[in-house]
Amino acid sequence: MESVGLLLDGFATALSPINLLWAAIGVLLGTAIGVLPGIGPAMAVALLLPVTFALEPTAAFIMFAGIYFGGMFGGSTTSILLNTPGESAAVVAAIEGNPMARKGRGSQALATAAIGHFIGAVVGITLLVLLAPTIADLAVNIGAPDFFAIMMLAFIAVTSVLGSSRIRGFASLLIGLTIGIIGLDEMTGQQRLTFGILHLSDGIDVVIVAVGLFAIGESLWVAAHLRRSSGKPIPVGQPWLGADDLRRTWKPWLRGPVIGFPFGAIPAGGAEIPTFLSYVTEKRLSKRRKEFGTGAIEGVAGPESAASASAAGTMVSLLTLGLPTTAVAAVMLAAFQQYGLQPGPLLFQREPDLVWALIASMFIGSVLLLVLNLPLAPVWAKLLQIPRPYLYAGILFFASVGAYAVGGQPLDLIVLFVIGAIGFAMRRYGLPVLPAIIAVILGPSAEQQMRRALQISDGNVSGLVNTPFAITVYVVIALVLLWPVLFRLIRRPSTQDDAERERVDV
């Protein structure tokens, strides 16, 4: 009950007119910047960090929270409409959201995403208030074998449900892992696949890879097939959801936070893993499994809700442990230090007004996000009515600007278009793009966690499975891999029984 009283005090601070204004500005800026391919919420917060020197800490962090949630939704907008995610957490939204948009249901997909973000944020922030100490304890106790097992589950899950075959999925995963190991080995300092280019020693930023595979690859693919397309404008669609849509989405909206919030609190890849796992879960549970890949609304509702809840979970580790689990959290940690504050267990005692005003502003920002973007869904969907040559020329321009802004090096543009050519080839030969993305994001971390676990066990492979949590995850992986075989074995006897019954009837 003490937390509830402190939260009410936080609402009193956050609902003051000036702080409410900063929250609205943060949501608008975050959404606008998140729409641009490659310029996600982390870069938005980093760019605005010097601007906030004149603001008091409470106002600054209220605006940062608005940018965080707004940026995540903005990334989903281009992911759904143009198949070009504005940031890595929006990657999964493209799987079902973009086919929906191509069918003239872009407004419904955006409305589903907006409501999913709202529900995920509200549930996640509520859990942040109630369960922050417990989640922080769990995060501290998870070791290297557990992290590696979680990442292996993400690899296996995404390659098992995407693409026309598992072989193509694993081929895409291998491409991503190869890109992910470019740079210096963190443990030995040995160069890997740098070809003597000093700029590649730091590796290739995941933003460049995501924008190259999605935005550049998609633009080249559309250009290659432009003459074959009809050129007819895609209808915008209605901004509201029908009764059937609501029946299909309310359960994924509620399941998403259950997956997203715990992952946000542990350093295992931010919102990427829970969004992928949420998509896999919805596909497994759906009665319309054949519709997945062609515009299943559940594949938008669940992952978007999980992504928003994961953002709330990120704040658990940041505020209670001083541990940033995402790029945005790392920038916000720098912002805390800029004001002479150190996140951790003592932050709630030393700066309770700031912390609870920040948490209250997350609730307010979520409401503002829904109020502002739900009516704007048809407006965003009209992006699809822009003539394709102009539309994709603009995508190439903003993608290049976003990639160049990452490091400020012309070589980044060359790398961007090389990876874009790889993305085009993957589309040409039917390889799903998403396993490559998750491999680039999680591959280096998975390697480090595996080597760390092996070092602790003196090179004994049993060191990877020496905890109950890791064993449980590997059992889940085995079920995912063996499920098609088990399903056939279970289904075959029933099919034979039906055949025998038909013979008897005859």
Secondary-structure blueprint:
Layout: H1 2-14, H2 17-35, H3 41-48, H4 57-82, H5 93-102, H6 106-141, H7 144-161, H8 166-180, E1 183-184, E2 191-192, H9 206-224, H10 243-264, H11 272-285, H12 298-321, H13 327-338, H14 347-350, H15 352-381, H16 388-407, H17 410-428, H18 434-456, H19 468-505
Helix pairs in contact: 1-15, 2-4, 2-15, 3-4, 3-13, 4-5, 4-6, 4-12, 4-13, 4-15, 5-6, 5-12, 6-10, 6-12, 6-15, 7-8, 7-11, 7-18, 7-19, 8-18, 9-16, 9-17, 10-11, 10-12, 11-12, 16-17
The fraction of residues assigned to DSSP E strands is: under 5%
Number of strands: 2
Q: Multimeric state of these chains?
A: single chain
Q: Strands of the largest sheet, in order across it?
A: 1-2
Helix content: over 70%
Largest sheet: 2 strands, antiparallel
Distance from first to last alpha carbon: 70 Å
Please state the overall shape, judged from the principal axes of the Cα atoms. Answer: globular
Low-pLDDT segments:
none
H and E order: HHHHHHHHEEHHHHHHHHHHH
Number of helices: 19
Mean pLDDT: 77
Class from secondary-structure proportions? mainly alpha
Descriptive tags:
single chain; membrane; 2 strands
